[in-house]
Design brief:
Layout lengths: L16 H8 L1 H9 L5 H28 L18 H20 L2 E3 L13 H21 L2 H5 L1 E6 L2 E7 H26 L12 H4 L2
Parallel strand pairs: 1-2
Antiparallel strand pairs: 2-3
Helix pairs in contact: 3-5, 3-7, 4-5, 4-7
Length: 211
Amino acid sequence: MHPIQLVRGQFAVRPLLPLFKFMDKKLTIYASIEKGTSPIREERESVVKQLIIGDAMHELASTRRILERLPEEQMTWKPHVKSMTLGGLATHLVNLLNWQAAIFAYTEFDLSTVPLRREPLGRREDVLEEFDANVVKLETLLAECDETTLGEEWTLRNGDHIILRQPRAIALRTFGLSHMVHHRAQLGVYLRLLDIPVPGLYGPSADDEGK
């Protein structure tokens, strides 16, 4: 089983469990405040971190579902001369996890120090294997960080040019996850043009409705 392969419908609930526990503990927390001890900050930090991790794992699980549909015989296909190939786009999605990990591994990331494009992976098995390994790496970094780390400033630059400077948690959502969702949507269009069934991500797709 890969790191984020969960039963359908189960994933959306698990990241919210800390919220339910938080609500159940409110009376206990209020009572402890009156006694002079307050775990509110600790509870809030736990909830914030769990929501950030839950959001990331949900998007990563959805991304893997669409990567599972890659047709190996079409990995060199592209819809337009200016477009990436199918394999190139899938490889870029996998590589974005390295960039997401860099948000928590370093204080800044300089795009001028890494290749703009890497050699595309040619097999679906290789794409999924590297994707899963990168998910484990990102999960480990997220598990090790605290709310202070999530709020620390992170910089994305291209040489001397500053592209963005944001708290790590926001950079993960914008530069990391939203960036990934953008290219994942492109991949969905590729699959549609190749007449490959597209999985539903935020609800059933036209292919899911036909089942």
